[in-house]
Amino acid sequence: MGSTKYITSMGELSRKDNSLCFRRDGKNVYIPIENTKEIYCLNEVSINSKLLDFLGQNHIVVHFFNYYGGYSGTFYPKDQYMSGRLLVRQVEKFQEQRMQVAKAIVRGIGINIYEILYHYYKHNKKEVKETIDWIKKEFYGSVDQAENVKSLMSAEGELWMRFYSCFPHFLPEDFVMNKRVKRPPDNPMNAMVSFGNTLLYTKTISAIFRTHLDQRISYLHEPSEGRFSLSLDLSEVFKPVIVYRTIFDLVNNRKIQVEKHFDKKVNYCLLNDEGRKIFIEAFEGRMESVFQHLVLKRKVSYRTALKLDCYKLIKCILEDKEFKPFSLKEGY
User: Fold this and answer.
1) Residue 65: which CATH number?
2) Residues 6 or more apart in contact with residue 295 via CB below 8 angstroms
3) Is 324 part of any domain?
4) Segment holding 288, helix H or strand E
5) Segment 298-329, tens digit of pLDDT
6) Average pLDDT taken over every residue of the chain
7) Where residue 221 sits, what CATH number does that domain have?
8) Predicted pLDDT of residue 19
9) CB of 108 within 8 A of CB of 237?
10) Are residues 18 and 128 located together in one domain of the fold?
11) Do 36 and 140 share a domain, yes or no?
């Protein structure tokens, strides 16, 4: 998995000379520091300040998750990419042209969901045509006509609901969800969506960290205390492309099965250890898969596409260029 390391077991993470050492059940597993950019702690992991200092020196981001697979927080090395000029312009863009950027994001979600559904329509799932037609004939118009962020997010909400309503047409019955439930997820599909969205959100945190953008100044989501709201913005258009395509592949090829890969209790449902490992491997595979970039004229991974969207936003902020988030249709 290259630059990303996942820790799925309980144990202790420490510095050992110039390497990372993860100790569990009396055994040491060494993680080379070279090329490691981010670490995911998906279980109870003990750390100390000596380790944090070492991680900070090497600019490694660490994401922590709770028992339910939910995001707890991120260790963020001292900001090495601070830019006062960009911060001022980022705030000005929020004050003066927030709706312009927010509309681009929501329109981008629609474009990518359309492409996902059109794939199934071409493969004889004609039942999705109603939603495809709605996106083309009504959704884009409602985005253009939205006068405030509230009405824009209402249009986005309807888009996701119509997308979910198409699932019974191309997924097995035991993976269909009646509605989106987040905390905690209540069925296998919600469990995978929540886990996948959180992985993507943290990938976006890592991508933004390596630019001069400020995580706190967002355009679609309200800037708020206690979360990186710009990461929520920039991850949105990639959800259909990365999270849902990963899920659909795992489910339809029976790599993930309800009876084998989930822990179900009275009011929640979670991926078990084996299920998480399968999901993470598929998710990372999707992030590293490549497509022909229309502008760069070369093959680019989705991980790189996420980073390129950060740079597109910087150009929008500093050079007033139109922000066009990643489009599955256009290939850039």
Assistant:
1) 3.100.10.20
2) 332
3) no
4) helix 273-288
5) 899 999 999 999 999 999 999 999 999 999 98
6) 89
7) 1.20.120.920
8) 87
9) yes
10) no
11) no
